[in-house]
Design goal:
Layout lengths: L1 H9 L1 H21 L7 H13 L15 H36 L11 H15 L9 H21 E2 L2 E2 L1 H25 L3 H12 L10 H17 L1 H8 L2 H6 L4 H5 L1
Antiparallel strand pairs: 1-2
Helix pairs in contact: 2-4, 3-4, 4-9, 4-10, 5-6, 5-7, 5-8, 6-7
Length: 260
Amino acid sequence: MKRLCRAVRAHTGLACLALLAVLMLSVVLGISLGPVTIPFPEVWRVMLHRLLTPLGLGDWISLEGIRDSTQNIVWHLRAPRVLLGMLVGAALTLSGVGMQAFTRNPLAEPYVLGISSGASLGAVLAMLVGVWLPMGRLSVPAGAFVGALVSILLVYGLSRSGGAVTPVRLILVGVAVSAMFQAFTNYLVYTAPDDAAVREATFWMLGGLGSAKWEDLPLLALILPPLFLVLMALARPLNAMLMGDSSAVTLGVDLDRVRG
């Protein structure tokens, strides 16, 4: 394992290219495999044709011999799901790296700080109570984002003592806030009068990409690059924080500034 880590550090560019190739292969496999198996060449032809058509180059890729039903499965059904899954995975990776460094805990995850519970409460409010309804399709994501933001701000505010935030206090407060938000969510679902809305909320909390549409991709695709750049800029301070607060301060890291 140590040899592998040294090889990755020594050849970071090649490792990134290899992982990118694996990612592209995974996307093609995800679109190709399913109840209806679609050959790889047909997947590539449909995807390239659809992507090049807005540029006026779609005629370069012929779809002759590919049925309309196959094209619809590739472009309208599977491609949005696979690509949204890819973007969500990238977002979870970035948030996980930041959270583990922030809490100095390799097992840190969104439920520890109450983020997932806050997002669930916000989404359930949007679906059952109709909050943020004027935003249309973005109502549920907006509700989840606001709920997660309120949760993390509450956790950060309650865990701050003496002008500083310690990882232990942050985790303890996060667990308490998570339990409180989860209780509110369960109460809303239990007392909701609309059975269809309850099923929708339950399905959302279970998670899934079955309802993914192309309209769901642009917002997440626009948010990820700035977040990646921010984390790259904070890479050195975060690495120092993983060794402990005292070590990070010795290396010149302003903990309050980074955590704030």
